[in-house]
Design goal:
single chain; GTP Cyclohydrolase I, domain 2; 4-stranded antiparallel sheet
Length: 133
């Protein structure tokens, strides 16, 4: 598994610039978990999505059509959450990565999912997965 910083270093070693798009601290209530007390009960999850694109994404005309519209990250998140229920954060993160890596311009992406309420205020549990094309 590649980390977010390793993916960035690899892309930069082959290019002069990288554009990073991100969506952070998006909170959704999600039915997820393997334990009996979790099934059917929604949990607050925080999502951080990071996408790396080769180059500096210099828009030609300062128009949204000239760049990768980062709003697709919100759509990918909501579409993934509205599909079938999963039990594991790892499964959810991989399904989300499948969607956010679809645009041709995207070289790598990182998904971080955090369960906010599991440890009663004494830290957070979560999963982070980075994938390169």
């Amino acid at each position: 598994m590649t980390s977010h910083s390793q993916a960035l270093r690899q892309i930069l070693s082959q290019n002069q610039a990288v554009t990073a798009l991100f969506l952070e601290k998006i909170i959704r209530d999600v039915d997820i978990g393997v334990h009996e007390h979790e099934i059917g009960n929604f949990q607050r999850l925080s999502f951080d999505l990071h996408v790396m694109i080769r180059g500096d994404s210099q828009p030609k005309n300062d128009e949204i059509a000239d760049v990768l519209n980062y709003e697709y990250l919100i759509a990918a998140l909501d579409e993934t959450l509205n599909s079938e229920r999963v039990s594991l954060l790892e499964t959810l993160a991989n399904r989300l990565l499948d969607r956010i890596l679809q645009p041709e311009l995207v070289e790598s992406a990182t998904v971080v999912i955090t369960k906010l309420d599991v440890l009663d205020g004494d830290g957070h549990l979560g999963c982070s997965i980075t994938r390169m094309k």
